[in-house]
Amino acid sequence: RTVLLLNGPNLNLLGTRDPAQYGTTTLAEVEARVTALGGELGVDVVCAQSNTEGILVDRLHAARDWVGVVMNPGAYAHYGIALRDAIDAIEAPVVEVHISNVYAREAFRHTSVTAPVTAGYVAGCGVFGYELALRAVLDRAAERRG
Ligand code: DQA
């Protein structure tokens, strides 16, 4: 039983990138926290990050029949149609995370082309949102199994 934690462009810079928006926790720390929570909840967590949309698409395909995916698509959320189609194409439930409250920011961040095909959406909770999203993925997966 495996969950994919997938982070998109620029999230490798977490910790130093715009701390007012994204805090000072590094991506490695986020991955460690989500992996630890996964252990408590009985799932393995595989972590991946890419700055390239096609690689994110490949990662989603590889996880198509896993328990689910926690994904921060970064800016691709706002215009990444190939990413959206990949989420739509796979069986595994995908919960989208944004660290910042995108609705309190520039207008171009208010649109998500990916959100309509996700199993859930978390924004504005800081990096804690990743833990919320993991819990939501497991709840959605349990619902599907019935
Ligand atoms: C982000 C929000 C996006 O608008 C931005 O492009 C990011 C990070 C977030 O986690 O708040 O890269 O996804």
From TrEMBL:
It catalyses: 3-dehydroquinate = 3-dehydroshikimate + H2O. Substrate binds at residues 72, 78, 85, 99-100, 109. The record marks 17 as: Transition state stabilizer. Keywords: Amino-acid biosynthesis, Aromatic amino acid biosynthesis, Lyase. SUPFAM superfamilies: Type II 3-dehydroquinate dehydratase. Pfam families: DHquinase_II. InterPro entries: DHquinase_II, DHquinase_II_CS, DHquinase_II_sf. GO terms for molecular function: 3-dehydroquinate dehydratase activity. Pathway: Metabolic intermediate biosynthesis; chorismate biosynthesis; chorismate from D-erythrose 4-phosphate and phosphoenolpyruvate: step 3/7. The active site is at 22 (proton acceptor), 98 (proton donor). Its EC number is 4.2.1.10. It comes from the Bacteria. Catalyzes a trans-dehydration via an enolate intermediate. Homododecamer. NCBIfam families: aroQ, PRK05395.1-2, PRK05395.1-3, PRK05395.1-4. Belongs to the type-II 3-dehydroquinase family. This is 3-dehydroquinate dehydratase.
